[in-house]
């Protein structure tokens, strides 16, 4: 700073009076003019640079135009002045997050001044290609400052700059790491929300260059620069269809898969190599890098149209990572969440995975390889029993662990979306005549008898089993029908370790207590699944009503109740046969009790019970012992309004409200976090028990969604008279029925009208027929009479002819007689013409 | 999949006036279908296609950037010229104006692109003015405004390849790209393009990523 004071002395003038900062700055600004010597300008810029931090406003006001001119004219000529002027400008434009508003405002104002014309940004883009290290570096920094303040303006200039892209991309190959890393950082903000810049980056080969950097920096094992590069790649791809299709078609996706250790062209029936499944995860940076890479793989797995080789490979990579690797839990969760929802690319049941299990007390350094199993089994296993059979987490429900199981649950839900699949799975649980159906892990967990004191892992398993089973039944009448005939093998609920699923040799104690045997003893007839569930529900209600259980255990009983209730609600919905069976198992009493509890601060269980009761009333449509007429008085005695209120209040429950499509895990109440149950042996793996965030699950989104679309129907249904036919099934139904009835009524009237019309018409036509016959006979008569008349006429004529002949003969005879002298009457001879008449007379 | 999937990657740009059928040509090339009423392209769209040049026994991957013809995008689309190895300069044979404007597009290309870029002049929409009356009965028949001879002559003067094509019927579409590709490969053989200098031509070589894959393979066996 020595030269600075020299300048100050020089400027102070002969009087020796101290000057104000503004005066000094004003003089320095004058010196920036191009008419001065380059050395003077350099000195002035350096002086201003020193003043810029403390007197930002004055420097900006007095010297900014001059500084811009210097940048324009001198930067390329003299690297020193270029660097200094860039650094000064950075100081003037910088906006610090925590600075007072006025100072931030100033930074924005200066940025606007700098960006008012295109010459400054254009100059910056040119300087990016300059050979001087400092110029390049400072230009990049200034660019990134400007981007932070006014991104869109800079982006617009960038698109117009003839050389911007090329020189910026070229920096990715700069040998000097500082510049390369700064360039990656600048590109990150430059491409934000600008598809055009993203595309042109892709065109200029940004993907290839970024991948080169990653590969040369030891791949995902590399440092923060790898993370930045991956962030950049993600930014180029995420919302850019055009770039995605470019990227998919390039040679890079296989490189990406190999980065996470997944062989890109691994045949489907070949297991993944151990190097992929078991990796070292000690370095936090690697976790961040892998997480980003997994995000990009997820983008490639989601592919519109028929699945191609790439999307299948990516989907498999995600699934393997989630189910059979030693990746950190949050990465597994991320991978499973990214598995595309249409699983057509992935035959989950046929896919074989090889799960691994940490060797206890090896601190995660040794791993047992388990028997290969189908991915579907591994998935269900993960959901029911948690990561590595919870041998690390033990009784605790870590938030990460629950998230992972929740993500796996999501895949299961997508998988059984197809009705054929869910039916097939349910079908497999039904015993065929003559042979017992094997107890599937799902059924086992579902029918585990809850006994006090509760084993918390077992509660979680049972709860997840209810969620899984609900996914199988919801919206599938046929699956519900099949499920009614499930008769779990006697002893399924007992303490048997059946199947290969309880392999962990040194795992925790098996779930379910010994009391199960006692419960089993008094069962003569095999119960159906539905009966078992309703029995367990009632057991759970009884247990939680006891006064002497600790608060934490009461909470677990609540969770069990919620699980059973949610499953039953979705099962009995629109399934009258199941409703009948449930009611005949004595469900009414079980449900009424909790609803009726008066001093109940917890709205959740009464709400669910009220809803289930409503479902039982609404869908009780089959003749049985417990009719609607029996239930209705119970409803009225409880109070319709009270029931309705209970149902509505569930929506206000925090555990219900917190559930979203992607988040079903809620934080566990913190008071429980440090306590660790003494009577359950602590996990034996030598992982230090740090304070980990715990989480828990009450509802899944599918149920919340189901509830929200149907609670109103039930609210209406409980008001309806027991005798009314299914009109209670919601207004729409009633309206539909009414309108159909109208249609029928109209049609009947119509038919009647037409029939009468037909009748009149037919009578008319018979009359016509008669008339026609009459006419025919009359014509006939007429014809015959006419004929007769003609005959008569003819006869008459013949007679006349005959008469004429006779007359002429008589006349001749008379003549002859006269000639013969015989006497002839006179008159006849006198008037010959009148002869006939006379004769006739 | 032992061998390489392609030998060369070539970057193409498609340019020319708005509504002459640039996007339709690309869709015809990549999807073998005709885009009846496409929306105007915004900025740039990407499409790719593998073609085989039998004489050279080479598989070539064409990366095509279809640019917007609208004036407002011109500054954006210009950025793509520099990196391209080939250019389809498209005009509409039923629009005199689009042919006239081709000169300014060519000037743009000459100004910004690699000097060795191969440019092919494509007269599109010949289906609209074929002599066969029956085939055009459905579409309104329009008069040809640019004769083949005239366009051919101009292409020769400017040293461009030339073809007339139809994105609707598919006639000559692949041929146009193939012709340009042959020309580029010829230039590659003559050593005009040197690998480092032109970003538009890339020889496919085993990348470091593939090497990485080999490592993991050998490791697991």
UniProtKB/TrEMBL annotation, chain A:
Where is composition skewed (Acidic residues) in this entry?
Answer: 824-841
For the Vesicle tethering protein Uso1/P115-like head domain, which residue ranges apply? 520-718
The UniProt keyword set, sorted, is: Coiled coil, Golgi apparatus
Q: Which GO terms describe its biological process?
A: endoplasmic reticulum to Golgi vesicle-mediated transport; Golgi vesicle docking; intracellular protein transport; vesicle fusion with Golgi apparatus
Its annotated compartments are: Golgi apparatus
Q: Name one GO cellular component term.
A: ER to Golgi transport vesicle membrane
Q: Which InterPro entries match?
A: ARM-like, ARM-type_fold, Uso1_p115_C, Vesicle_P115, Vesicle_Uso1_P115_head
Where in this chain does the record put each Uso1/p115-like vesicle tethering protein C-terminal domain? 738-840
Q: Gene3D superfamilies from the xrefs?
A: Leucine-rich Repeat Variant
Stretch list, region Disordered:
668-688, 811-841
Q: Does the keyword Coiled coil apply?
A: yes
Coarse class of the primary localization is: Golgi
User: Which PANTHER family has this protein been placed in?
Assistant: GENERAL VESICULAR TRANSPORT FACTOR P115
Q: What is this protein called?
A: P115 like vesicle tethering protein
Automatic annotation (TrEMBL), chain B:
Q: Which domain of life is it from?
A: Eukaryota
InterPro entries recorded for this chain? P-loop_NTPase, Rab_GTPases_membrane_traffic, Small_GTP-bd, Small_GTPase
Entries under PANTHER family matching the protein = DRAB11-RELATED (PTHR47979)
Q: Where is this region: Disordered?
A: 194-221
Q: Which PROSITE patterns match?
A: RAB, RAS, RHO
Per UniProt, what is one Pfam family of this protein? Answer: Ras
Specify the species: Polyporus arcularius HHB13444
Look up the signal peptide feature and give its range.
none
What's this protein's name?
Ras-domain-containing protein
Q: Which Gene3D superfamilies match?
A: P-loop containing nucleotide triphosphate hydrolases
Per the record, the similarity remark reads:
Belongs to the small GTPase superfamily. Rab family.
Q: Name one GO molecular function term.
A: GTPase activity
């Amino acid at each position: 700073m020595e030269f600075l004071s020299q300048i100050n002395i020089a400027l102070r003038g002969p009087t020796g009076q101290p000057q104000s900062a503004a005066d000094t700055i004003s003089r320095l600004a004058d010196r920036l003019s191009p008419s001065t010597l380059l050395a003077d300008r350099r000195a002035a810029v350096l002086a201003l640079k020193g003043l810029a931090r403390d007197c930002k406003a004055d420097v900006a006001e007095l010297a900014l135009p001059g500084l811009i001119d210097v940048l324009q004219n001198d930067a390329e000529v003299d690297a020193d002045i270029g660097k200094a002027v860039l650094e000064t400008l950075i100081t003037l434009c910088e906006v610090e997050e925590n600075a007072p508003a006025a100072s931030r405002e100033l930074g924005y104002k200066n940025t606007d001044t700098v960006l008012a014309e295109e010459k400054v940004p254009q100059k910056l883009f040119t300087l990016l290609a300059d050979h001087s290290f400092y110029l390049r570096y400072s230009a990049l920094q200034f660019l990134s400052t400007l981007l932070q303040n006014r991104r869109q303006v800079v982006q617009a200039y960038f698109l117009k700059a003839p050389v911007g892209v090329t020189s910026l991309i070229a920096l990715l190959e700069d040998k000097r790491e500082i510049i390369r890393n700064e360039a990656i950082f600048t590109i990150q903000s430059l491409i934000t929300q600008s598809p055009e810049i993203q595309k042109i980056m892709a065109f200029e080969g940004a993907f290839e260059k970024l991948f080169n950097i990653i590969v040369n920096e030891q791949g995902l094992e590399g440092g923060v620069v790898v993370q930045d590069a991956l962030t950049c790649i993600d930014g180029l791809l995420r919302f850019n269809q055009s770039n995605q299709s470019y990227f998919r078609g390039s040679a890079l996706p296989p490189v990406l898969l190999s980065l996470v250790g997944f062989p890109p062209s691994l045949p489907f029936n070949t297991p993944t190599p151990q190097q992929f499944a078991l990796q070292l995860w000690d370095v936090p940076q690697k976790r961040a890098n892998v997480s980003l890479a997994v995000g990009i793989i997820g983008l490639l797995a989601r592919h519109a149209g028929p699945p191609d080789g790439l999307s299948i490979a990516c989907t498999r990579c995600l699934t393997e990572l989630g189910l059979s690797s030693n990746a950190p839990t949050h990465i597994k969760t991320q991978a499973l969440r990214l598995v595309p929802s249409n699983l057509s690319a992935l035959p989950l049941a046929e896919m074989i995975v090889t799960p691994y299990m940490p060797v206890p007390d090896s601190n995660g350094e040794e791993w047992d390889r388990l028997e290969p199993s189908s991915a579907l089994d591994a998935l269900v296993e993960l959901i029911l029993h948690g990561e590595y059979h919870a041998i690390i987490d033990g009784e605790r429900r870590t938030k990460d662990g629950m998230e992972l199981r929740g993500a796996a649950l999501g895949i299961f839900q997508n998988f059984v979306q197809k009705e054929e699949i869910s039916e097939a799975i349910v079908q497999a649980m039904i015993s065929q005549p003559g042979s017992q159906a094997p107890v599937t892990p799902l059924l086992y967990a579902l029918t585990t008898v809850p006994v006090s004191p509760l084993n918390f892992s077992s509660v979680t398993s049972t709860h997840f089993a209810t969620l899984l089973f609900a996914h199988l039944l919801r919206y599938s009448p046929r699956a519900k029908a099949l499920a009614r005939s499930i008769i779990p093998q006697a002893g399924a609920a007992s303490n048997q370790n059946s199947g290969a699923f309880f392999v962990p040799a040194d795992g925790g104690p098996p779930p379910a207590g010994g009391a199960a045997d006692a419960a089993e003893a008094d069962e003569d007839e095999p119960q159906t699944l539905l009966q078992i569930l309703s029995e367990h529900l009632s057991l759970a209600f009884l247990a939680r009503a006891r006064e002497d259980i600790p608060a934490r255990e009461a909470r677990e009983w609540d969770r069990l109740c919620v699980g059973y209730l949610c499953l039953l609600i979705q099962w009995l919905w629109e399934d009258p046969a199941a409703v009948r069976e449930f009611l005949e198992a004595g469900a009414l009493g079980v449900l009424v009790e909790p609803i009726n509890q008066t001093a109940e601060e917890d709205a959740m269980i009464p709400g669910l019970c009220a809803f289930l009761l409503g479902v039982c009333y609404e869908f009780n449509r089959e003749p049985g012992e417990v009719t609607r007429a029996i239930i209705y008085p119970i409803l009225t005695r409880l109070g319709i309004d009270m029931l309705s209120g209970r149902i509505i209040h569930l929506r206000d429950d925090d555990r219900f409200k917190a559930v979203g499509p992607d988040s079903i895990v809620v934080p566990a109440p913190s008071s429980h976090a440090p306590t660790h149950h003494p009577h359950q042996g602590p996990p034996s793996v030598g992982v230090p028990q740090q304070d980990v965030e715990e989480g828990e699950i009450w509802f899944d989104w599918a149920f919340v969604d189901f509830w929200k679309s149907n609670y109103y129907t039930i609210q209406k249904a409980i008001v309806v008279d027991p005798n009314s036919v299914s009109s209670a099934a919601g207004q729409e139904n009633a309206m539909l029925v009414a309108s159909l009835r109208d249609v029928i009524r109209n049609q009947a009237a119509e038919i009647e009208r037409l029939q009468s019309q037909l009748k009149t018409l037919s009578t008319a036509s018979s009359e016509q027929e008669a008339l026609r016959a009459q006419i025919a006979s009359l014509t006939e008569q007429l014809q015959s009479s006419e004929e007769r008349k003609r005959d008569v006429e003819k006869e008459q004529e013949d007679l006349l002819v005959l008469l004429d002949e006779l007359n002429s003969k008589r006349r001749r005879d008379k003549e002859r007689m006269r000639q013969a002298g015989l006497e002839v009457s006179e008159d006849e001879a006198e008037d010959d013409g009148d002869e006939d008449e006379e004769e006739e007379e | 999949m032992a061998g390489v999937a392609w030998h060369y990657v070539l970057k193409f740009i498609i340019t020319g006036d708005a509504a002459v059928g640039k996007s339709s040509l690309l869709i015809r090339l990549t999807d073998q279908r005709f885009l009846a009423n496409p929306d105007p392209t915004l900025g740039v769209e990407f499409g790719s296609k593998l073609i085989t040049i039998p004489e050279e026994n080479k598989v070539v991957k064409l990366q095509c950037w279809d640019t917007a013809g609208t004036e407002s995008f011109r500054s954006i689309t210009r950025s793509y010229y520099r990196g391209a190895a080939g250019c389809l300069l498209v005009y509409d044979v039923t629009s005199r104006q689009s042919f006239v404007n081709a000169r300014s597009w060519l000037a743009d290309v000459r100004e910004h692109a690699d000097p060795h870029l191969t440019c092919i002049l494509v007269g599109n929409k010949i289906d609209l003015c074929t002599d066969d009356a029956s085939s055009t009965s459905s579409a309104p028949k329009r008069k040809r405004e640019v004769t083949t001879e005239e366009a051919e002559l101009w292409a020769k003067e400017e040293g461009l390849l030339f073809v007339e094509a139809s994105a609707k019927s598919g006639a000559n579409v692949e041929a146009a790209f193939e012709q340009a590709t042959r020309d580029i490969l010829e230039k590659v053989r003559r050593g005009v393009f040197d690998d480092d200098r032109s970003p538009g031509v890339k020889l496919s070589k085993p990348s470091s990523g593939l090497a990485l894959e080999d490592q993991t393979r050998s490791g697991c066996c």
